Amino acid sequence: xxxxxxxxxxxxxxxxxxxxxxxxxxxxxxxxxxxxxxxxxxxxxxxxxxxxxxxxxxxxxxxxxxxxxxxxxxxxxxxxxxxxxxxxxxxxxxxxxxxxxxxxxxxxxxxxxxxxxxxxxxxxxxxxxxxxxxxxxxxxxxxxxxxxxxxxxxxxxxxxxxxxxxxxxxxxxxxxxxxxxxxxxxxxxxxxxxxxxxxxxxxxxxxxxxxxxxxxxxxxxxxxxxxxxxxxxxxxxxxxxxxxxxxxxxxxxxxxxxxxxxxxxxxxxxxxxxxxxxxxxxxxxxxxxxxxxxxxxxxxxxxxxxxxxxxxxxxxxxxxxxxxxxxxxxxxxxxxxxxxxxxxxxxxxxxxxxxxxxxxxxxxxxxxxxxxxxxxxxxxxxxxxxxxxxxxxxxxxx
Length: 398
Prior knowledge:
Helix 1 packs across helix 2, helix 3 packs parallel to helix 10 and helix 5 runs antiparallel to helix 13. Strands 1-4 form a two-stranded antiparallel ribbon. It is mostly helical. It starts with a strand and ends with a strand. The chain has 13 helices and 4 strands.
């Protein structure tokens, strides 16, 4: 998620009874719930033991994915391919954004489809394993960029604007975290399993982990320096919820995600909730504009309910119904089962899962850019918003 640079015009400071409650909810949704869950999973482990705790959380997160994780992937398709013809060929996007849209929306999925088909046709765990490793390489990039969006967008909604230098420092910390998370732990080339596919990972050079660790440490110091300079100049820091969401995303979800074994089950759900909060902000503000004059369109609640139901339904088809149908119908046959023995019992599920994850990262890189006019809705604040900075108007800069 790449945020826009914003100019805030005529801010009006207001205070409403629901503002504090709204900020607390926002804090929890964009990452703050992590700080609550850490002691809760510790209590759970102490109460029933690690094995029972893992079983319970594994069961819970597997089924909760149907209404949290899977819709978070599915709604990306609903956002991305809306009005696809005009976006790809018309005047909705500027030329560079249109190129990004065509690449992410058509060329990338074609390449991924060819890759997955080749792996399935040959029953090659190595080919599918390379695709899985690309997914794991990109997931860190996806997480830290979403954290960057949390910090910059929500700060802008509160009237806090980062300087170009501060943005570069924040992004530098993001990319350093991504590199260190991918390089750690050192990997000499291990046999791994993912969604039934057993493959051998690509070895990392031994020096890669300590080098990226040093770079990550230096970037953290640079971030601290930038915040200290801002405080020295203006006696201001970024708002608590955006800053906490950013640091939790980078440090606890990306770099030190294995700090607690039980939290590893919950981090994907927390990431998905964070993502869905921004989808809600964007679509709520868009629906409110369409609901008012002169169009007087469908009520906001109805639009959001339809979007939510569509995301849940599409998520079930993509991650549950579709792969189960393909694996049951094709892999169970003698010839296909023998050809795909190296890919486990659910090769189509593995292929779809990896395909959607990688494609999701590329689509997000287009959806959440400032060059996408729709992202302007993220910056809308009004009298019905939960934030205390109501009455602002925001203009998106290039």
